[in-house]
Amino acid sequence: MSNLTGIEKVKLEKLFGMGSGYVLNFTNRTFQEFILEHTGLDILASKYDYGSGSKANRLRAFWQKESNYVIGKLLLGMLDYWKENKRLYMIEIDPTEQALYEECGKIADRLRHDTIVEDIDAIQPNTEDKDFVVLAKSVRESIAKNEPEVALDRLHTFVMKYVRQLCDKHGISHDKSKALHSLFGEYIKYLKKNNLIGSEMTERILKSSISILEAFNTVRNEQSFAHDNPVLNYKESILIFNNVSSTIKFIEAIEKDKSKPEKQETEWSDFPF
Fold this sequence. Notes:
mainly alpha; 273 residues; single chain
């Protein structure tokens, strides 16, 4: 459930023209498709039945039932849609509208940054494999729905696929039977060997992740829906998600820096004098 205030709702409703039951220029079909694209949720589901069932009433029900994070994502998309429509139809935005648009943007940003896992957006596939894309999306959606404990097994699978891809990318030999923590240990050796770690402390933090991922194997096998198990509690599941996602975020930063071309120093001979 979101914590949108009454005043915030009034501002959003005014910008999106919800007073007559409509939402922007959406039809029922395009409204359903837009929300599905941005949140993975079906606005025509019975849980959003409210009042007359109009698009505006369904959006109001959505604001009431979904988390801040999900609503923030949707609002940012709707704000982009609002502005793009103005541009496409060459409709001038007057100062009052612009001020309201900016206020609604602040509302969306506030909601968007309210998530139980700070770096959940780091859970992105590092290949274009279709199954990997679907897997990563389902993991992120579990956090958007405030259900970290139901996705622990999928998070483990994600990390396994992610680290295997890193090993493949850098020519680190491995086989299917190698455990997640062992694979990650091989990747850390690669980083160290290639001087991609700048401090002993960073190395120690990464090495501590080896034992953390070893314990994650146990959680996956004994405390997740991977098997018929009692599932780990909510608070500890959040802790695991935060730890894993922050590690993935750091690794992704290393990989991006490594892929940047090095700047070539200009030689004096290049100048015409």
